[in-house]
Design a protein that fits this description.
Aminopeptidase; about 30% helix; single chain; globular; binds coenzyme A; alpha+beta; 9 strands
């Protein structure tokens, strides 16, 4: 028998409408499958160099490119599809503010990479990124049965590093001059969380 499950705190799973989409939710945010209607917002967010600055996607998006990407994305297994991040806007209303998800899932080693972008810049530094990451971790460990969740982040992206550290990620290493951006090779940091670390932390927080 495995360790005692950790009770969820302000965390729920909801089955939506007739589509049967399962989502993860806290009091402030929810993660849900992407819809075609979401695409124009990604085009708008990624047209801003400040939002794109530290993302793998270094060129602006086009609507036609997004539509092609969306069709390809639907052919991936459901667990590996990116999710939309919504912010609770009161009275049962939600506002789409960004994207997040697990990718590069290695089912034999139970390892996956996570990524996040809050497209609405006015909402940065309000704890939402940390909340999204915590939700992704819970989903990764409790639903996808992952053992290790990792991410890569530009060394210059201090806001993101602080976010990941607050969510429990541990610095694992530095890939020196791994990415070429803005005329120079940039270091990229590797962070990870192991399931046992996450469990201990979640249990301590629940006490
Ligand atoms: C990175 C990102 C997800 C963080 O989300 P967020 O909602 O702003 O994060 P949070 O508010 O939960 O935490 C941000 C923390 O960084 C801190 N911070 C902000 N700027 C900082 C800086 N220059 N140096 C150090 N810390 C900084 C904030 O003060 C806050 O910490 P605190 O709660 O201790 O005060 C979001 O800013 C984003 O999507 N950025 C654009 C895309 C991106 O960079 N994605 C990550 C790619 S790896």
């Amino acid at each position: 028998m495995g360790p005692r499950p950790i009770p969820p705190r302000a965390f729920g799973r909801h089955r939506l409408g007739s589509g049967g989409d399962i989502m993860m939710q806290t009091t402030r945010i929810r993660l849900r499958p992407l819809e075609r209607e979401d695409l124009p917002r990604y085009v708008a967010w990624f047209s801003d160099p400040e939002v794109r600055q530290y993302l793998a996607r270094y060129l602006p998006l086009s609507m036609v490119g997004e539509e092609k990407w969306f069709e390809e994305m639907l052919t991936r297994p459901e667990d590996e599809r990116p999710l939309a991040v919504d912010l609770h806007a009161g009275e049962g209303a939600w506002r789409h503010i960004g994207g997040a998800g697990h990718h590069n899932i290695d089912w034999r080693n139970h390892s996956a990479e996570v990524g996040i972008a809050i497209g609405e810049k006015s909402l940065w530094n309000q704890g939402l990124g940390t909340e999204v990451m915590e939700t992704l971790l819970r989903h990764g460990f409790e639903t996808l049965n992952l053992h290790r969740i990792f991410l890569r982040v530009f060394a210059a992206n201090r806001r993101a590093q602080r976010t990941y550290e607050k969510a429990g990620f541990v610095l694992e290493g530095r890939m020196r001059q791994a990415e070429f951006r803005e005329g120079a090779y940039q270091d990229v940091l590797l962070y990870s969380v192991l399931r046992d670390e996450w469990r201990s932390r979640a249990a301590a927080k629940a006490r």
